[in-house]
Amino acid sequence: MRDFIQGLPKAELHVHHVGSASPRVVADLAARYEGTTGVPTDPESLAEYFTFTDFRHFIELYLSVVDLIRTPEDIRDLTYGVARDMAAQNIRYAELTCTPRSHLRRGIDGISYLEAIEDARVAARRDFGLSLKWIFDIPGESGVEAAADTVALIEARQPEALVGFGLGGPEIGVPRPQFAPHFERALALGLHSVPHAGESTGPETVWDALRHLKAERIGHGTSLVRDPELVDYLGEHRIPIEVCPTSNIATGVVTDLDQHPIRRMVEAGLLVTVNSDDPPMFGTDLTTEYEVAAELLGLDEQGVADLAKNAVAASFLDAGAKNRLSAEIDEYAARAR
Hints:
By secondary structure, this protein is of the alpha/beta class. The protein has helices spanning 2-7, 23-32, 43-49, 55-66, 72-87, 100-104, 110-128, 143-156, 180-188, 203-213, 228-236, 245-250, 262-267, 286-297, 301-314, 319-336; strands at 10-16, 91-98, 131-139, 162-168, 192-193, 196-197, 218-220, 241-243, 272-274. Strands 1-2-3-4-5 form a 5-stranded parallel β-sheet. Strands 6-7-8-9 form a 4-stranded parallel β-sheet. α15 packs antiparallel against α16.
């Protein structure tokens, strides 16, 4: 099954820019700024460093890696390295969630930031055949000021590959309705709404994302199965769920894989996609997440291929590109039979 999944053409919709930096990339960045950071410069030591006690601790460690990114060159190198690692798993398309405000407040000029990620995107297409699109998100812990800064950057210079606007970070103590005006501005620019919701809080946060932020996909949504009305609404409106099994265990929002709600989501007929979130930080990758999902859902190879097609259907690719990538998945599955 792992060999099948490894070769399977895949799309990923819920994966974070900085959180996707491989141990090699993180260690290289730490070495550039050795003596000014507590992040290990040895890739072997990073697995121990990324051992979280709870969700808040995860955010602290995540931000310590953000602190390593201090120049546009760092941004470009990190982005290209992420693309290289994706391509090695035969990921053909990814919507990579970036948090530009975290870098702007650390002194990187907004336009330079955009030029760095775009340069890496073009190189990734040329060198790996990987198509990248961007989702810019608000770091929720930084509040409405961060939301305003993020929208202002987009209004100043909207990248061609930008397709979505999101909201990440902690949910507890960060009410979703306060960000409604900023999502309205982003949607007016043609972007799609893709906030995290119901990860470390209850179903009411998912309702807030739907009602106030006009969510078109739900990031994580681990608690949504506790509300039958919400499940019915998501199913009726075919709103996709971006599920990240290993992430949910690592951050403690789900106690163990046997308790993961992905089974109940699929049994309820929801459109479920599988994603890796912050893969090196959680000791995983998208191939492994598909293995986990196949085990939890009892899928054979065709079932896994169908799950991969869910991600294509839920993506913001145009219809022609969706058809081509779905056909590629079908052809691969047919050859494997």
